[in-house]
């Protein structure tokens, strides 16, 4: 059955020739080479898609909804269209066009459900998002076109504007063209290093100075410092450093501001301002591998034939399936229209290429819908390849995955398992760290922790960055090593830099980058000893046993407590002097209306009271010794290590990891119909020693992952 993206299911206006749509909305601005915004948006019909597909597309949300409750039927939570979220869009255009920065940071935030931002039923469209897609498509095509030209000339230069990069602090200035790192922090972007060799890194930077020292910055590749530079300039200046790269692949280039100072008493304020980051590569060994759009030369192929070749090549890759002849013809009608309006080959080709990126076939993962009354049916080979790649990479399938799908081999369980293991060894599997662990364990929230600076003056952006990187590196170790994921709770190691080591009271590793260290006395180690996790489940001025208990129950056991009943009062304010938070909370629990939930939540939270609201260790609270005892499921314990031991032995923890991975992989809340799949994945996960790769293999081989949801019969 056709979806709303199929021509026969579109309303009649969708069948208009692009030239008819063009002339109906044409404006005088076209002659200046910039068609009217409305005209451009109609080139490939996104606004029409929003009305044509209203039954299949969810309504856009302006703010995050409450966590999604599992539907009773698989089809209740499934959609044949799932929009790429911001992370998926960024990764997809990176793999499609080369280095692109993070253009989706300008898009409206994605809503979350079941703990993740890839919930199909919530990823709606809005006018603001359509406009962002339109503007971004033009920039991406222009940049990729320019990069292709540089690649064909010899050594390629890739530049990413600072406002498109990823920042841990600061803000854009000067009409959004400059990024101001106003405190110690990073600006990062991912670049592809096609081969080993000598590269030239460049940054256009300057500073607001605060004597006696100039602004200082470090450059890092994949977390390794490759340069330390003074920035004495007060106006834009290009800084360049040669770097030897020993292996090809995607690497993260980071500019780090290291010596911030601010003193309002003397009006001194030192900041690092950045315009762009650039990588100049050596002459490529194969020009063809460097070109993403300009796959032919119009002078030799002929202009129209070359434009068709470019458009078809991009559409085949961007749409994650072969473009049909009528679809290529529709795209080429845009090229023809621009040429007939008197403009040249380059502008016409670019507009046709933009249309590829404005197509619903690019912006959505499309699963063919079935007739009402149809039971579960297997995904097509291309649909399975796409579901797998967005699960493990948050990006499109690569050539090997696509080739196996087209050969009809990907559905073979042995082949599918081998592909999962291959993909986990690929650098693109970092998406699991950023997007799966980043949301499951709340690591994305760490940079936004709002600890009261008057009470916790050490909690600055540099420390929060180290806390986030600790959690990311910790999870990454379980992806890459032969280690049981149950040790996420009680591992005897963690990752710290000098700053975080001081905060934890651990020996310094002698590095500004996080480094693996032993946790020693057991105060740290495991996710419940990480300051980033503890601080995100706290209030700005104090700890919250309730929030911490809720975090453990919901994130680690999948036993989310119900919301408090209406009218429940906050913690009492009239308490004896010197009372600890535990004593105050126990007064609150004396209220029968509050006791039900608190009897489960509070003992977990109390066991973590040795960590203050910013995750630092403490022995006292308000002058009294911390009481970290508790009872969970009838077992008494004391402190975070004993809590971790109890949770590790609870089968609910492993099953919760199964549920979290399945929900993330399917892009929807789990349902009653998924329970057999949960049991299958959980059993295989256990048989594999609870290793994360075995969990991910089991998800990919599961019935729910490889099949469409059944479609209820029409009433």
Report on this model:
The chain is an alpha+beta fold and 715 residues long. The protein folds into three domains: 213 residues, no CATH class; 127 residues, Sandwich (Jelly Rolls), CATH 2.60.120.260; 215 residues, no CATH class. 39% of the residues lie in helices and 16% in strands. It has 25 helices and 22 strands. Strands 2, 4, 5, 7, 10, 12 and 13 form a seven-stranded antiparallel beta sheet that branches. α5 packs across α9 and α7 packs parallel to α9. The N terminus is likely disordered.
As residue ranges, the low-confidence spans are 1-56, 59-72
End-to-end distance: 18 Å
Global Rg: 27 Å
Helix content: 25-40%
Structural class: alpha+beta
Give the number of domains: 3
Overall outline: globular
Question: Summary?
Answer:
The protein is an alpha+beta fold and 715 residues long.
């Amino acid at each position: 059955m056709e979806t709303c993206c199929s021509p026969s299911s579109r309303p009649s206006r969708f069948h208009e020739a692009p030239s008819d749509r063009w002339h109906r909305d044409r404006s005088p601005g076209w002659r200046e080479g910039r068609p009217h915004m409305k005209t451009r948006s109609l080139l490939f019909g996104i606004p029409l898609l929003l009305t044509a597909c209203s039954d299949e597309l969810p309504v856009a949300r302006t703010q995050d909804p409450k966590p999604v409750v599992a539907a009773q039927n698989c089809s209740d939570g499934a959609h044949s269209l799932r929009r790429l979220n911001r992370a998926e869009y960024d990764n997809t255009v990176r793999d499609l066009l080369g280095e692109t920065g993070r253009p989706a940071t300008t898009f409206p935030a994605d809503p979350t459900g079941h703990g993740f931002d890839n919930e199909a039923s919530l990823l709606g469209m809005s006018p603001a998002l359509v406009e962002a897609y339109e503007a971004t498509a033009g920039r991406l095509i222009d940049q990729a076109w320019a990069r292709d030209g540089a690649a064909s000339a010899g050594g390629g230069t890739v530049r990413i504007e600072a406002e498109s990069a990823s920042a841990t602090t600061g803000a854009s200035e000067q009409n959004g063209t400059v990024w101001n790192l106003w405190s110690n922090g990073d600006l990062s972007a991912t670049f592809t290093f096609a081969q080993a060799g000598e590269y030239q890194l460049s940054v256009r930077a300057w500073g607001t100075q605060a004597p006696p020292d100039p602004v200082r910055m470090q450059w890092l590749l994949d977390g390794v410092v490759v340069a330390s530079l003074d920035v004495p300039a007060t106006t834009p200046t290009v800084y360049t450093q040669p770097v030897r790269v020993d292996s090809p692949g995607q690497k993260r280039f980071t500019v780090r501001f290291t010596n911030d100072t601010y003193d309002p008493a003397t009006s001194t304020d030192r900041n690092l301002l950045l315009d762009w980051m650039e990588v100049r590569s050596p002459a490529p060994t194969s020009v063809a591998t460097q070109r993403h759009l300009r796959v032919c030369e119009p002078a030799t192929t002929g202009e129209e034939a070359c434009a068709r070749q470019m458009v078809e090549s991009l559409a085949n890759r961007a749409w994650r399936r072969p473009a049909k002849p009528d679809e290529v013809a529709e795209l080429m009608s845009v090229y023809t229209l621009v040429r007939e309006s008197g403009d040249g080959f380059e502008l016409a080709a670019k507009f046709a290429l933009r249309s590829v990126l404005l197509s619903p076939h690019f912006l959505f993962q499309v699963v063919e819908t079935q007739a009402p009354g149809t039971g579960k049916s297997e995904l097509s080979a291309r649909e399975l390849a796409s579901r797998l790649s967005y699960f493990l990479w948050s990006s499109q399938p690569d050539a090997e995955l696509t080739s196996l799908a087209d050969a009809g081999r990907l559905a073979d369980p042995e082949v599918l398992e081998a592909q999962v293991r291959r993909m986990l060894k690929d650098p693109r599997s970092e998406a699991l760290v950023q997007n799966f662990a980043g949301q499951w364990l709340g690591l994305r929230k760490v940079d936004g922790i709002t600890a009261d600076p008057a009470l916790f003056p050490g909690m600055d952006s540099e420390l929060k960055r180290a806390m986030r990187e600790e959690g990311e590196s910790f999870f990454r170790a379980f992806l890459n090593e032969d280690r049981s994921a149950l040790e996420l709770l009680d591992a005897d190691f963690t990752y710290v830099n000098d700053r975080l080591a001081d905060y934890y009271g651990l020996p310094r590793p002698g590095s500004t980058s996080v480094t693996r260290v032993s946790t020693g006395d057991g105060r740290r180690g495991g996710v419940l000893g990480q300051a980033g996790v503890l601080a995100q489940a706290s209030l700005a001025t104090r700890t919250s046993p309730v929030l911490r208990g809720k975090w453990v129950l919901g994130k680690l056991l999948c036993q989310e407590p119900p919301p408090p009943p209406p009218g429940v009062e906050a913690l009492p304010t009239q308490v004896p002097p010197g009372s600890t938070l535990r004593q105050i909370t126990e007064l609150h629990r004396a209220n029968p209306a509050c006791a039900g939930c608190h009897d489960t939540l509070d003992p977990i939270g109390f066991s973590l009271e040795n960590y203050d609201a910013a995750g630092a260790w403490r022995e006292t609270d308000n002058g009294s010794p911390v009481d970290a005892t508790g009872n969970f499921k009838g077992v008494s314990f004391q402190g975070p290590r004993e809590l971790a031991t109890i949770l590790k032995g609870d089968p609910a923890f492993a099953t919760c990891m199964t549920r979290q991975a399945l929900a993330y992989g399917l892009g929807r809340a789990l349902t009653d119909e998924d329970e057999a799949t949960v049991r299958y994945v959980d059993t295989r996960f256990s048989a594999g020693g609870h290793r994360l790769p075995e969990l991910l293999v089991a998800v990919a081989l599961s019935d729910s992952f490889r099949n469409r949801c059944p479609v209820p019969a029409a009433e």
